[in-house]
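User: Structure with zinc ion, tokens only please.
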Amino acid sequence: MNHDPMQNELARAVSLIHSAENIACLTGAGVSVESGLATFRDTRTGAWTNVDPEKYASQKGFVASPGDVWRWYMKRYNEMSRAQPNAGHIALAELEILVPNFTIVTQNVDDLHERAGSRYVLHLHGSICRYRCNGCRRTYDLSVEERSASLPPMCPRCFDFIRPDIVWFEEHLPTGILDMALRMTRECNVMLVAGTSGVVYPAGEFPTTAKQNGAAIIEINPETTAVTGMADVSLRGPSGVILPQIIAQLKKVITQSVAGVQTS
Ligand code: BV8
Ligand code: ZN
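Assistant:
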């Protein structure tokens, strides 16, 4: 038993992960902080500290001020395109290889999990790299010129505005993605919850559902959140530091258990 409580918590997390058959990882904006991207609700750096989410992430806001909303998303698109996956994203891509069944369920609209090498990623709130018509929902690839215009392009089919293929408040999540995410949530033995405040629903409900179905909850966050109370293990710190520590420990445990099998 290590005298450093953090080390003990890390060892408990690794032991839970090593013995799990199915692992789900719910991620939020916090896992992209070490790639230089703002979270939403952080008082210091939140992307919403000086904008009203109702105005920028809602149908009502888009219809009222399509130019403002469009420019806000294109600014975020440019920031995300310049960002690189951080050590936390890379650790999660490694975890997918080290354990039998691993799925990332993300609220993020950036593609950093995929660019880090993760193959099984469910985007609950869509993607800033995809575009669709606000009216007829036809999907579009946009040119650099269209993305840098001050107004969203017009759909040639129904003449409504084209928008990022992102889920705004009071919009339904994509049914297929939501069904798969709920299945992962119910079937996992361990749910990692990394970089999310847990305040947006239905994603915010997933740790509770997983727990009710017998999963152990491991939270990775520098702060306490709405999830902390139900977490079996809380690892207080940045995901870009903690996730690589989990991977390093897990590799040791796997090596020891393989060696143990060989000598027995
Ligand atoms: C829905 C757009 C059914 C994409 C987002 C009334 C009417 C209708 C619905 C509702 C209602 N009241 C409540 C609801 C439900 C509503 C909701 O949850 N509201 C909240 C505010 C209470 N949900 C919805 O509307 C959803 N749809 O329910 O449909 C329906 C339909 C019609 C009518 C009724 C019901 C849609 C939800 C999706 C909304 N879209 N954004 C975009 O612009 O990106 S939400 C937005 O929040 C983002 O998607 C983001 O991903 C999400 C969650 O935020 P987090 O990722 O957790 O980020 P946050 O800043 O909060 O926290 C960051 C964390 O990171 C912090 O804990 C911090 O400590 C930590 N951190 C910081 N640094 C690090 C770190 N962690 C690790 N390492 C670090 N280095
Ligand atoms: Zn259209």
